[in-house]
UniProtKB/TrEMBL annotation:
<dbReference type="InterPro" id="IPR001789">
    <property type="entry name" value="Sig_transdc_resp-reg_receiver"/>
</dbReference>
<keyword id="KW-0597">Phosphoprotein</keyword>
<dbReference type="InterPro" id="IPR016032">
    <property type="entry name" value="Sig_transdc_resp-reg_C-effctor"/>
</dbReference>
<protein>
    <submittedName>
        <fullName>DNA-binding NarL/FixJ family response regulator</fullName>
    </submittedName>
</protein>
<dbReference type="InterPro" id="IPR039420">
    <property type="entry name" value="WalR-like"/>
</dbReference>
<dbReference type="GO" id="GO:0003677">
    <property type="term" value="F:DNA binding"/>
</dbReference>
<feature type="domain" description="HTH luxR-type">
    <location>
        <begin position="147"/>
        <end position="212"/>
    </location>
</feature>
<dbReference type="InterPro" id="IPR000792">
    <property type="entry name" value="Tscrpt_reg_LuxR_C"/>
</dbReference>
<keyword id="KW-0238">DNA-binding</keyword>
<dbReference type="InterPro" id="IPR011006">
    <property type="entry name" value="CheY-like_superfamily"/>
</dbReference>
<dbReference type="Pfam" id="PF00072">
    <property type="entry name" value="Response_reg"/>
</dbReference>
<dbReference type="InterPro" id="IPR058245">
    <property type="entry name" value="NreC/VraR/RcsB-like_REC"/>
</dbReference>
<feature type="modified residue" description="4-aspartylphosphate">
    <location>
        <position position="58"/>
    </location>
</feature>
<keyword id="KW-0805">Transcription regulation</keyword>
<keyword id="KW-0804">Transcription</keyword>
<dbReference type="Pfam" id="PF00196">
    <property type="entry name" value="GerE"/>
</dbReference>
<feature type="domain" description="Response regulatory">
    <location>
        <begin position="7"/>
        <end position="123"/>
    </location>
</feature>
Length: 216
């Protein structure tokens, strides 16, 4: 094993996919599969024990999900990079993973070269996203910039919630995506309506979409 070898922990609750990926990555000269985990709690425990360079993390796992596992690993061992590799294509999961501290996000349709490139980049301190995901990240921040300029009366959190409202997300979805209580979301939504002088959600969506939000 050379000094350049990247030690990887794989976390996925599907043994066929997890073991197949372990064989694939283990066959490469510059990657060592340090361990595997079948759920988020195992991932957190093994990350602390094995101290890999990168954790490749699924999202939907029993017990502790991949988002919370990522958050705990990023908090406990910020030098470990997390690459989320998931079937989840929705924006809420993508941005929840980013907020949790993931430095890479790929869909499970990614090929070997894309996965290896993401692992290598994250191991060297970079952030990397698959092409379709990167496009959505760019769209999100373009929309955020529009919101900042068009709705300066809103707080950053209110702008974030307005963006999700414009995308058609219900309050329960917004609360889950932003890790807020339903009451906090309701209070923010009420503040948004008051500041934008709109009567209801439908009117707020129209105003937000006219400003370029919620179209990605």
């Amino acid at each position: 094993m050379s000094d350049e070898t990247i030690r990887v922990l794989l976390a996925d609750d599907h043994p066929v996919y997890r073991d197949g990926l372990a064989v694939l990555l283990g066959s490469l000269p510059d990657i060592e599969v340090a361990g595997t985990a079948a759920n988020g709690l195992e991932a957190v425990e093994q990350a602390a024990d094995l101290q890999p360079d990168v954790v490749v993390m699924d999202v939907r796992m029993p017990g502790l999900d991949g988002i919370e596992a990522t958050r705990r690993i990023a908090a406990d061992s910020p030098h470990i990079g997390v690459v989320v590799l998931t079937m989840s294509e929705d924006d809420a999961t993508l941005f929840a993973a980013m907020r949790a501290g993931a430095r890479g996000y790929l869909l499970k349709g990614a090929n070997q070269a894309e996965i290896v490139r993401a692992i290598t980049a994250v191991a060297h301190g970079e952030a990397i996203f698959g092409p379709a995901v990167a496009r959505r990240v760019a769209d999100f921040f373009a929309g955020k910039a529009a919101a900042d300029s068009v709705f300066p009366q809103l707080t950053p959190r209110e702008r974030e919630i307005l963006s999700l409202i414009a995308a058609g997300r219900p309050n329960a979805h917004i609360a889950s995506a932003l890790f807020l209580s339903p009451k906090t979301v309701r209070n923010n939504v009420s503040n948004i309506f008051a500041k934008l002088h709109v009567a209801d959600r439908a009117e707020a969506i129209v105003r937000a979409r006219e400003a370029g939000l919620g179209r990605s």
